[in-house]
Amino acid sequence: MPADFFDTNVILYLLDDSPRADIAAGLLASTGVVSVQVLNETLVNCIKKAGMSWQQAGDFIAGIRQLCQVVDLTAEIHDVGTALGERYGLSVYDAMIVAAALLSGCDRLYTEDMQDGLLVEGRLRLVNPFRA
To answer: Rounded to two decimals, what is the model's pTM?
Structure first.
C-alpha cells in the first residue's frame, strides 16, 4: 500500500500551538515516510529556530523516527533529484525530498513549501495539507 511522505515543514508544525499542529499530528498518526534529509532539516530548525537543546531536539526526532519509516540518502536519490529539479524547476533540497518520496513508492508528499497539486512523474502528488 502506498505511503505518505512528509516534508520538514509538516514535522515542524508539531511544535506549534496553532491549528496546523493538529493537522500535522493527524497526518502523522497514520504513519508515513521521511528521509534522513528531513530529519537533518528538522534538527537544524529545532536547535536554531525553536531554541531546543541537542537532547530535546534528539528526543523530538526520536519520536518522529518511531512514527515514520526513514529513508536513507543514496546516490540514486541524488541522481533522480538532480533530474527532477531540472525538469520541474525545484530547488536542490526540494528535489531531493521529492526524489526520496518517489523512490520510496509514496503517492503523496505533504508539503507546505512546494507547488500544491503538482503531479511528479505521473505518480507522486504534492499536497499542501494546510491550504484553506
So the answer is: 0.93
Average pLDDT, consecutive stretches of 10 residues, N- to C-terminus, the chain (132 residues) = 88 94 93 96 96 97 96 97 97 97 97 94 96 80
Number of domains in the chain: 1
Q: Is residue 94 part of a domain?
A: no
In a domain, 29, yes or no: yes
In this structure, is residue 48 part of a structural domain?
yes
Strands (E), 21-132: 32-35, 68-71, 108-110, 119-120, 124-127
Strands in 12-67 per DSSP E: 32-35
Q: How far apart are CA 51 and CA 87, in angstroms?
A: 37
Residues in the chain: 132
- The grid cell for 10 is 509538516
Q: Report the relative pairing of strands 124-127 and 119-120 from DSSP bridges.
A: antiparallel
